[in-house]
Amino acid sequence: MIPLNAALFQDNKKHGTKVAVYEAWMSRRPGLTNALAEAEIADRFGISVSTVRRYIKEIKENGYLPVPKPKQGRQVFAWDPEALKFLKTFYLTVRNNVGYCTVRNAYRATCIEAQERGWRVGSEPSAYKHIEIISSLLIDYTQGGRRSLDNLFYIARDLSGLKPFEVIVGDQHRFNFWVIGKDGQKFRPECYAWLDMRTRLPYGVSYEPGAYNFRTVARALRQGIIRFGKFGSTYNDNGKPETSKKIDWLVSSLQTFGMKYTDEAELYKTEDGHYALEDEQGEVIALAETCEIWHRKNRRIFARVKNAKTKPIERFFATFEQLLLDRCLPGYVRNLRSSAAEDEEANRRLNWQESNGYILHYEEFVEQANLALETYEKRIHSSLKRSPREEMMYAIEQEGWEPARLKMQDIQALFMEPDRRRVRNNRITINGIKYVGPNLTAQMVSENRNNIAGLSGKEIEVRFDPDNPEAGVYAIHPVTGEAIFLTPEKQVDFFDEKAVAAAIEEKNANIKAVTESYQNAIQGFGRVITSSRYKTLEQSKQIAAEVHETETKPQAMTDEAFAEAVGHSLELVIQDSKKQKPVYASERDRYEAIIDAVLDGAILSESDQEFKARYEKNMSEGERQFFENKITFGIEKRKEITQWH
Hints:
The protein is of the alpha+beta class. It has helices at 4-8, 13-26, 34-45, 49-62, 81-97, 103-117, 124-133, 136-144, 214-228, 241-246, 248-256, 291-300, 311-326, 340-355, 362-378, 388-399, 408-414, 442-447, 497-522, 537-552, 559-579, 587-599, 606-618, 621-644; strands at 167-174, 179-180, 186-187, 190-196, 202-208, 233-236, 260-263, 275-278, 284-288, 417-422, 427-430, 433-436, 459-464, 473-476, 483-488. The chain folds into six domains: 4-62; 76-153, Homeodomain-like (Arc Repressor Mutant, subunit A, Orthogonal Bundle); 167-397, Ribonuclease H-like superfamily/Ribonuclease H (Nucleotidyltransferase, domain 5), CATH 3.30.420; 422-518, no CATH class; 553-581; 583-644. The longest helix has 26 residues, at 497-522. The termini are far apart. This is HTH domain-containing protein.
């Protein structure tokens, strides 16, 4: 049997609910407070307490029968259809053609048109009601055109059915804790983390006592490969241009081992090649044509929006911070949203911790962070309903998943960073350390392998791991592409005769290897110089010695006599040169010669002194300036020469 109130108000279900609420209120249990009674009724009908009170008041004032409301309330329905159509059309057209239109502007234009055509128009507030009814798709179309409708056909990628480490997402995080560095200064450490989207296990976490960089990203990847094996694909936020540029070689190396390094934007790629930006609920709010534009919009326009697909790693960092707080670590950064009183107390507490030496050093903080990570891996995850480690074990035991391990030598080669160095005397310098190539053999030289001695002066590629110096340095031969292992140069003690002898022996062995290789290469070939115009080196030396002996030293003279004769001849030459008077083309040439002699430190004769005085008395102003500059320049030049010597 249908209740009376339900039968009476079948055509008005809402009013029937009001009556039912009122009857429940009137039949409430005795002794029950009004607040508890209202709460019970609200739970029974699935409405709020305030709505219960409003329904009760309405029935009390108006009775059980519904009171008809005026249909012209706020004049929402006072519009003629033609006026409404004009209002909406004007609003959409102006937004499309101009780019912006207010409801007030559309309403005023409608009123002017209605006055001419005799249409009925409601109030301005009612215009807002009618504009709200317009589909948001039409409004989006006026702003973004057909491309904005691509959002309707966007299909988000489901990451719930992945295998362990098939997809890992990476991001940077700055901790909300102050720590003390080696220099005694206070700073906030950073880290780069890779999170597995299936197990929620941190694939790798690398810490940095400052701003994160490319090596931080690479270290975290290496940590994960060593611990869990290969991953399938990475999706990371390439925040810094230099980071994404420098990582190209690592991307290529990862692909060699079947691992794909992908930009985070690829998670949001649509079927037509665009990149969608989503809000926290996964709703598409914008589109970008390229990865770069996606990153730019994501940072500038939607800086406060956390993307849905990378939300797990944001939650991971929030949990990470909470676990650190649970360990009662000092140095917590004050909350920017705190009140003035809370902010003052936070600063006082931080200053007190710092003055009493409670702030952790960077190494201590890293140790505590690793302990917090271990706690995270073992505790129940709300999304998984089990711990991350248990999720991985479930995949191993129930799904037959096995980690794909890499050999340690492959991992070591994978993370060797490329750089360019110039070979100088069979040596390459890296971070102030000189590295040399291996000892040579004749076969190595002939085959041009394992040898950088022949590359002296050339800039070649080298590979080394700045985070693992023990891995060594490799030089890449520019022709053969061979990786040549280099070792640090051994510094020989000046007084260690055995070490010196060993170094000399090693040097001679390298030289011997080259000479043997050369002899083997030309063996049986013979000489290539066949012209009679040339003699062999030995013949030339013998002939030159004979000619020199014949021309310079007569056989009848002794050594002493020969030296005396040379001295006598030299005296004659000097005396004869003094008697000769120089010949000048002009008086100016003679004056220049006198100036040069004075600058050279010579003592002038009386005739030269008289000529100099006479010439200077009659020279023009321009000529005087020229010679003054010449003398000044000559003096400075001779000062430099004297200082050099």
